[in-house]
Amino acid sequence: MSPDTTTDLFALPETYRDLQDRARELAVSVRDVAARADEASETDPDVRARLAASGLTALAVPARWGGTFDAVDSLAMTVVREQLAAESAHLDSMFAMQGIGSYGLALGGSDAVRDEWLPKVASLEAIAALCLTEPHVGSDLKALTTRAEVDGDRIVLNGHKSFITNGGDADFYSVLAREDDGYSLFFVPADSPGLSTERPHQIIAPHVLADVIFADVAIPLDHRIGEPGQGFSLVLATLATFRVSVAGAAVGMAQSALALALEHANAREQFGGPLSKLGSVPEHLATCWTDIEAARSLTYRAAAASARDARGSLHLSSMAKVVATETCGRVVDRSVQIMGRFGIVRGSDIERLYRAARPARIYEGSTEVILDSLARQLVKNGL
Question: Are residue 272 and residue 319 in the same domain, yes or no?
């Protein structure tokens, strides 16, 4: 009996193709404001309104609180981010952070807090943020100094978080802090007395970014997320679910860069013919195309595995994040090279992509930190 070849085993199911189409429609709809939004240090109101109207932020929370699926689906987040990042880093970040900032709360928050806040996350009425890094603490989160202490019927936080996405614009923060001898996660409304924000930094691809400072910030006991000492477990669950979506965004940026380079190479006449047929340009184009398809294949495989078992598939998500972001960096760089002087024009679409691609190799796990973790896992457990 011959195998059934009528079904494409490697095609996305219809549900995800529909999400792709909706995301692409949204991404195209923000083209008129994308350049402005991608230079902004604050939430762009037009992008926010259009994202909210799309209903896609419902993917960021479970159905119990107005979400699309019973549980947050890594593949859905990934295919949507691929489309959004192709047009606007601001739009992509706004969408992704609704999930990243609220996932721990969905897993371990008190019913009262979840019932009040997660429906607002799903509708984008409330903006979410996750506070991990500190001025002197990056990947080594066990060195963090922000502390939480129980004081009667409240918890008091003191510390300084830095480079926090959505900082200053968020309606609440999920904050990782030391508690006794462990680390816990806390839900902190942005209007809590003693909480302040400042913006001492901006990155090469402008971003809604701030330091968040806690000076005797008091919250109710039920604002602890999960049990005392469960903070790292909740953060790891967040990374396991959303890390692969960074790979999706990287694939989208790479695809967009290649499209710009191909359009330029076909239209640009040099030495009596199109640039796309001159010298090494055809090889560069073909290499970019090949690399993107390879990265997309691993990304979709990892995202599908993560949707089934996020913690058990973290190694695949980590591999996809490394491969896709490194591929994106190479593809965008080659695309700039193909476009020559037109590729380095300030304010152009390819320049925005060039700047947006670079941070992707650092945030949510730098390439080097991820490879070190994968190597230790491989040496310890084998293939």
Answer: yes
For residues 264-278, one letter each, b for 16 or more C-beta atoms within 10 angstroms of the residue's C-beta and e for the rest, the string is bbeebeeeeeebbee
SS3 5: coil
Q: How many separate domains does the chain show?
A: 3
In a domain, 31, yes or no: yes
127-159 in b/e form (b: 16+ CB < 10 A) is bbbbbbbbeebeeeeeebebebeeeeeebbbbb
Domain that holds residue 281: 232-381
Q: Are strands 154-165 and 195-198 parallel, antiparallel or unpaired?
A: unpaired
Q: Is residue 4 part of a domain?
A: no
Mind listing the pLDDT tens digit of every residue in the chain (383 residues)? 445 555 677 889 999 999 999 999 999 999 999 999 999 999 999 999 999 999 999 999 999 999 999 999 999 999 999 999 999 999 999 999 999 999 999 999 999 999 999 999 999 999 999 999 999 987 888 889 999 999 999 999 999 999 999 999 999 999 999 999 999 999 999 999 999 999 999 999 999 999 999 999 999 999 999 999 999 999 999 999 999 999 999 999 999 999 999 999 998 888 888 888 888 999 999 999 999 999 999 999 999 999 999 999 999 999 999 999 999 999 999 999 999 999 999 999 999 999 999 999 999 899 999 999 999 999 999 98
CATH number at residue 144: 2.40.110.10
Of the candidates 227, 251, 273, which is a domain's last residue? 227
* Residues 118 and 211 both lie in one domain: no
Instruction: Could you list the beta-strand ranges (E) of 207-310.
Output: 209-220, 224-225, 269-270, 273-274
Last-in-domain residue among 126, 153, 170: 126
Q: Which tokens in the block code for residue 194?
A: 């003693």
Neighbours of 40 (CB within 10 A): 15
Is residue 5 a part of any domain in this protein? no
Residues 162 and 25 in one domain: no
Both 107 and 194 in one domain: the answer is: no
CA–CA distance, 263 with 289 (Å, rounded to integer): 14
Q: What are 364's two structure tokens?
A: 């949510």
